Amino acid sequence: MGEWTDKAKGRVKETVGVATGDRELEAEGKRDTAKGEIKGKVEDAKRVIKDALDPDKPRGDGL
After folding, report:
1. Per-residue CA distances from 39 to 16, 29, 30, 44, 49 (Å)
2. Which residues does 57 contact at the CB level (< 8 Å), separation at least 6?
3. Is residue 38 in some structural domain?
């Protein structure tokens, strides 16, 4: 699943787990949310690397 989907699914599970006292569901929700955060960071890093390696892209630094 995508970054946003994992985050949303995780938040829902975490909230339901807290509301129902289901610590296992709460923990699963936290894991899903963290997974979404990690996916976002990986995508950001890939974008930065791609931009750094693309010599034709204007950088806005005057070069």
Report:
1. 23, 15, 14, 9, 15
2. 51
3. yes
Q: Are 4 and 36 contacting, i.e. CB atoms less than 8 angstroms apart?
A: yes
Helix (H) or strand (E) holding 46: helix 23-53
Q: What is the pLDDT of residues 8-49, one digit of tens each?
A: 999 999 999 999 999 999 999 999 999 999 999 999 999 999
The structure's pTM equals: 0.73
Range of the domain at 40: 3-53
Q: Beta-carbon neighbour count of residue 2 at 10 Å?
A: 11
Cα separation, 55 vs 47, in Å, equals: 14
**Cβ proximity of 29 and 10 under 8 Å:** yes
